[in-house]
Write a structure and sequence with these properties.
heterodimer, A: alpha/beta, Ubiquitin-like (UB roll), Alpha-Beta Plaits, Fe-only Hydrogenase (Larger Subunit), Chain L, domain 3, 17 strands, B: Arc Repressor Mutant, subunit A, Glutaredoxin, 7 helices
Chain lengths: 638, 157
């Protein structure tokens, strides 16, 4: 029996596919099929669905998703294959012989219509009161196929109770059509394993371990399931009603911080294609809605880089010079989904997690202390809202330890989708808004903070600062235009080595109290890695446990969502590989358009260390406000 | 569960994994062994099986919920399953069912107070030519009459 480590989190089944030939010029490598009497040539193993797409023929799908393995459960994509007794699910039919396919024969259209009708017969709810109205795949299909009467009846009462136990994700199984996208997302894509089909036959439903509420199982709140759900069976826990109340209350000072990823994606909710950054238009829209101040989360992303970078330098100093036992590699802690993941699955490694809070929570703590003092506002009257691409941020701001300002540091986490609805509700067309800047005293932020939104961004931002700190040289000398290309892109795991060499610079003013010089780093090689999606995070963690190459890294960035924050569970639906690529492009383009591109050069960050956090990074006050601790949750549910 | 009980359970499952392997296909035989011994599959056992087979606890739970012969809540020492499908029904299932209910003092779906017997319906048990039929744990009884059924129940220890 092969041995598997005790701490290893589960690994899911792999999808069943036929491998496509590497060389399609070999005999049998290409197969000519006839789709609706049009001949096309496709590589062996191509599914009928892919072949139809190549031929420019649309076949409707529901359970199919580009990020997920084939399931073939919804039967919406059925087509007629000549010579076969029954209709075939095109998404799950790999082509191995020259077949003749009909995608729109009377029998196919009738079957699809019945399939949709059958799904509607079990689907409770009225479209007009639904959060996914206008962006629902079931609704679209029903419209497309003219399902205007319920041939097989329609449920008049909800079958299941709504599970709203979680701060992040609400499950309404009465709206579920059993496409199992959430199951494949949770088990295959994220390897967290919260959701699976429970019971059998007409009692089948998607459930959790022991049918427990979502708040009581090992859910990391990443919200990827929400992003894959074709209906509103899964949705985020929406706080917009209470935010409206706060805005309408004249005694409340409502401030909002916006993260880079929502700004790169919110245009999609207003009919723009993916990849349009709406940063400054959004500022105006938020002010018109009634938010008193609009801040840039990138400011505290810059602060995160200083705090987390300093923490890394301190750890290395302790390990190399003082020969103390410290936990290395250091892990980033910006992604609340990843934090909860490691708390559950690898609690032995919590010491490796940077104690620095995420940018959202750092800002929360500063708003209710530094900002409140400066503006002379009672922090009790401040309502702090954060626009995030993330449903786990809702959980994070409700963590009991996130009260370091004496109040709840961040009151509400709002997703991109929910903010888009609020903007629409206020009668604002975002793309038409004039541009405006962020509010003081936090002012502008650097491009380093901006690229936190893409996988590899935190590491790139950290490298831009740490390299300049240590080498005393411009980072542009080493990386062209300060773009750390090896850390960009959507490879699941990225790895990079940076040799420090024999020339080191002087210790910058900010760090003088912490390290005397950089001589101890001469000749060393900084090793860093980046992982996005918890499935990839798990691979790195297992490698570290086994003592592989990642155990020799110094700093590793982990993001819970595929693609990093820009592919977050709070982002506009749909999110596909292509849309993630375009969002990343928008973020990197905005970064390059800025003059300020390094966290430590941000004058507002320097100012806050001068005026407020006077003892410098990783000092007593910064530890109180900007750092946190974690909970060993473990993988067992009592 | 006490820590000692948990450790014993872990050891037991580790042995089953040695016996059946740690592939996904080993799941059903492991579950059947646990079910046979404990008459149910405790929460902790589900999580331990998941850990040792490298799958998620919810997947184990999903499989248990799929099969009628696996359950997560404790049942009686003897599980009496009366076939409810059409051929047994036509050969006098109803009278047998009534006799069993009267003898045990419980309805279908319930367990006797002393946790000795759980009474359930089963779908076809493959004894269509010898109905009415029932299964007690893993033994099949066929060509039942109300009297014969009561006698069988009385012989349970």
């Amino acid at each position: 029996m092969e041995s598997k480590g005790d701490f290893r989190a589960p690994v899911s089944q792999t999808p069943h596919t036929i491998e496509k030939p590497k060389d399609t010029t070999t005999i049998g490598g290409m197969i000519t099929v006839e789709v609706n009497e049009k001949k096309i040539s496709v590589p062996l193993g191509t599914t009928i669905l892919e072949a139809c797409k190549q031929a420019g023929i649309t076949v409707p799908t529901l359970c199919h998703h580009q990020d997920l393995c084939v399931a073939g459960v919804c039967r919406v994509c059925v087509v007629e294959v000549e010579g076969m007794r029954t209709l075939q699910a095109s998404c799950a039919f790999p082509i191995t012989s020259p077949i003749k396919i009909k995608t729109s024969s009377p029998i196919v259209r009738k079957a699809r219509k019945h399939v949709i009708d059958l799904m509607l017969s079990e689907h409770y709810g009225e479209c007009y009161s639904c959060v996914r109205n206008g962006n629902c795949e079931l609704q679209d299909l029903a419209k497309e196929y003219g399902v205007d009467t319920y041939t097989f009846g329609h449920v008049s009462k909800p079958k299941y109770e709504v599970d709203n136990s979680s701060y992040s994700v609400i499950r309404d199984m009465s709206k579920c059509v059993l496409c199992k996208r959430c199951v494949r997302t949770c088990i295959d894509l994220q390897e967290v394993g919260v959701l699976e089909a429970i019971d059998r036959g007409d009692k089948t439903h998607i459930g959790t371990f022991l049918e427990k509420p979502l708040a009581d199982v090992i859910c990391i709140n990443c919200g990827q399931c929400i992003n894959r759900c074709p209906t509103a069976a899964l949705r985020a826990n929406d706080p917009s009603d209470v935010i409206w109340d706060a805005i309408d209350d004249p005694n409340k000072h409502v401030v909002i911080q916006t993260a880079p990823s929502p700004r790169a994606a919110i245009g999609e909710e207003f009919g723009l294609g993916a990849g349009h950054s709406m940063t400054r238009e959004l500022n105006t829209a938020l002010r018109r809605i009634g938010f008193d101040k609009v801040f840039d989360t990138n400011f505290t992303a810059d602060l995160t880089i200083i705090e987390e970078g300093t923490e890394l330098i301190l750890r290395l100093y302790k390990a190399l010079v003082k020969k103390e036992a410290v936990a290395l590699p250091q892990f980033t802690s910006c992604s609340p989904g990843w934090v909860k993941f490691i708390e559950h699955y690898y609690p032995e490694y919590l010491d490796n997690l940077s104690s620095a809070k995420s940018p959202q929570q750092m800002f929360g703590a500063l708003i209710k202390t530094f900002y409140a003092q400066k503006m002379g506002i009672d922090p009790a009257n401040i309502v702090s809202v954060a626009v995030m691409p993330c449903s786990a941020k809702k959980f994070e701001c409700n963590r009991p330890e996130m009260n370091d300002s004496g109040y709840k540091d961040v009151d509400y986490g709002l997703t991109t989708r929910e903010l888009a609805r609020m903007i629409k509700e206020a009668g604002i067309n975002l793309p038409e808004m004039p541009k405006s800047n962020f509010d003081n005293p936090f002012g502008e932020a650097s491009g380093a903070g901006l690229i936190f939104g893409a996988t590899g961004g935190v590491m790139e931002a950290a490298i831009r600062s740490v390299v300049e700190f240590v080498l005393g040289r411009k980072v542009e000398d080493i990386f062209e235009k300060a773009n750390v290309i090896p850390l960009r892109g959507f490879d699941g795991i990225k790895y990079m080595e940076i040799p420090i060499g024999d020339v080191v610079g002087p210790v910058p003013e900010l760090l003088k109290s912490l390290v005397p010089n950089w001589d101890w780093l001469k000749g060393a090689t900084l090793k860093v890695a980046v992982a996005h999606g918890t499935a990839n995070a798990k691979k790195i963690m297992d490698d570290i446990i086994a003592g592989g190459k990642f155990s020799e890294c110094h700093f590793i960035e982990f993001m819970a969502c595929p693609g990093g924050c820009l592919g977050g569970g709070g982002q506009p639906i749909p999110t596909t590989p292509e849309i993630r690529r375009l969002r990343a492009q928008a973020i990197y383009a905005e970064d390059e358009s800025l003059e300020l591109r390094k966290s430590h050069e941000n004058p507002y960050v320097a100012k806050i260390y001068k005026e407020f956090l006077t003892e410098g990074p990783c000092s007593h006050l910064s530890h109180k406000l900007l750092h946190t601790h974690y909970v060993k949750r473990g993988r067992y549910i009592a | 569960m006490l820590v000692m009980e948990k450790n014993a359970m872990t050891e037991e499952i580790e042995e089953l994994v040695l016996k059946y392997g740690n592939q996904r296909s080993a799941l059903i035989p492991i579950l059947q062994d646990i079910q046979r011994k404990y008459k149910h599959i405790p929460d902790f056992a589900q999580q331990e099986i998941a850990r040792l087979l490298d799958i998620h606890p919810v997947e184990v739970f999903s499989v248990i919920s799929f099969y009628s012969f696996l359950n997560t809540e404790p049942k009686g020492k003897y599980i009496v399953r009366l076939c409810q499908t059409i051929s047994c029904d036509m050969q006098g299932k109803a009278a047998v069912a009534k006799a069993i209910e009267r003898e045990l003092g419980i309805k279908f779906g319930e367990t006797t107070r002393d946790s000795k017997v759980t009474l359930e319906y089963a779908n076809c048990v493959g004894m269509c030519d010898q109905g009415p039929a029932l299964i007690i744990n893993e033994r099949v009884y066929s060509k039942l009459t109300p009297e014969k059924a009561v006698q069988i129940l009385n012989e349970l220890k």
